[in-house]
Design goal:
By secondary structure, the protein is of the alpha+beta class. The protein folds into two domains: 119 residues, Phosphorylase Kinase, domain 1 (2-Layer Sandwich); 240 residues, Aminoglycoside phosphotransferase (APH), C-terminal lobe (Aminoglycoside 3'-phosphotransferase, Chain: A, domain 2, Alpha-Beta Complex), CATH 3.90.1200.10. Helices cover 44% and strands 13% of the residues. A five-stranded antiparallel sheet has the order 1-2-3-5-4. A three-stranded antiparallel sheet has the order 6-8-9. A two-stranded antiparallel ribbon has the order 7-10. Helix 8 packs antiparallel against helix 9. It binds adenosine-5'-diphosphate (ADP), 2-acetamido-2-deoxy-1-O-phosphono-alpha-D-glucopyranose and magnesium ion. The site of magnesium ion has 4 residues, from loops.
Length: 372
Amino acid sequence: MTVESKKKHDVKKIMSQFDIPGDFVAAAPYGSGHINDTYAAVTDQGGTSVRYIVQRINHFVFKNPPALMENIERVTKHIHEKIKNDPHSTRHVLTLLPTLDGKCWFQDRDGNYWRIYIFVENTKSYDVIENSEQAFQGAKAFGEFQKDLVDLPGKRLNDTIPDFHNTPQRFRNLEKAVKDDVKNRAKSVKKEIDFIFSRKDVTEKLLNLSAQGLVPERVTHNDTKLNNVLFDEKTGEGRCVIDLDTVMPGLALYDFGDLIRTGTSPAAEDERELSKVRMQMDKYDALVKGYLTSAKDFLTKSEVDNLAFSGKLITLEIGMRFLTDHLSGDVYFKIHREGHNLDRCRTQLRLVECIEELEDEMNAIAANFRKK
Ligand code: ADP
Ligand code: GN1
Ligand code: MG
C-alpha cells in the first residue's frame, strides 16, 4: 500500500478543474479495488443529484498516466462511436469528463493524476459471483469488449504496465523476492513457495504458443475480475466494462483466465477458510458459454483449446503476485489486515489445485462448445 493512498484528498477542488455543471455536494471513498483511489461524488444540478466517479490513478503502479489515459480515451471513443445511436450508450461504455482545458486528466500540485467518469447508476458489481447467470453475463460482456476492439484503428496501444501478464517474468520476480526476503517471511511460507516452484512449466505454456503464432496478440482488458463489470440492477445484464487501466496489447486467454479465477469459486479472494474455495462447474460452464457467445467468431482453435488451461495459469500468476507482495512487505496491493496478501495467495493456490483436479472435465466442456 502506497503512503499517498492513505492521504485524504480534496475531491471538491479536483472536480473544480473539470467541466462539470452544478454544485459540489459531497464525496466519499467508493468500491473495493486494490489499486486506485476511487470516490463517488455527488453534485446538485438544478435540484437533481448527479453522481460521478472521481479517481486518483495509482502512479506507483502505472508509471505513465498520460499514456494510460491516451489508451482509455481511444478505446472508449471507439466503442462510443459504435453505439452512438443507443440512447443509453453511457450505461454501456465508460464516459470520461473533460477538464476545463479539454484534456481527459488533471495533475494536481502533489503530482497526482485524476480522471472523472460518468457514474453508471442502477448497476451492481459483485466481488463474489452469486449465480450462473451472472457468470454468463459477465463473460459475455468481456467477450463483447474484446470484439468491439478487434477493429480499433491507429497505432498499437501503449503498454501501461510492461510484462503485466508475462508469467515467466512474474515467476522470476517471486524467485527474487524469496531470495531477498526483505521481511524475513520466506521461512513461514515454504509450502506456498514450493507449490509454485513445482509448477514452473505452467507459467511458460501460453507464451510458447504465442511465439509459435498459435495465439495472436489482441487488444485485451487484462484485469477481467468480475467486479470490473457493472451489472444492470433491473435486468441483470452485464454490460459496462470498467477499470480500463490495463487495456493494452495482450492475449485473449489472459482475460478468460481471470474470469475463471474470479467467477467460479464461492469464496472471497481473501477467504481464510480454504475449504470454502471450490471450482463450481456450473459457473465455469456459464463462463464458457457467455464468453463464446461474444467471442467465438474471432477466436482461433488454439485459444478455444486452452480456455480451461488459462484459468490455471492466471490463478497461479495472481497467486504468485500476492505471495511476491507479501514477501516484499505489501508494497503493491492495498491491504486491510496483517497477512492479507498471504491469505489472498492461499485462496489462489487452492483454486489452482481444484482446477487441476477437474481440468479434463473443464477441457471437455470447452471442446463441446467449440463443436456447436
Ligand atoms: P480499481 O482499479 O482500484 O479496481 P475501479 O476502476 O475498478 O478501480 O473502480 C473501483 C470500483 O468503483 C469498481 O469496482 C466499481 O464498484 C466502482 N466504479 C468504477 N467506475 C464506475 C462507474 N463509472 N460507475 C459506477 N461505479 C463505478
Ligand atoms: C488488481 O485494480 P483491481 O483491484 O481491479 C490488479 C489485478 C489483480 C487483482 C487481484 C493493475 O485489480 O491485476 O488481478 O487486483 N490490478 C493491477 O484482485 O495490478
Ligand atoms: Mg477494479
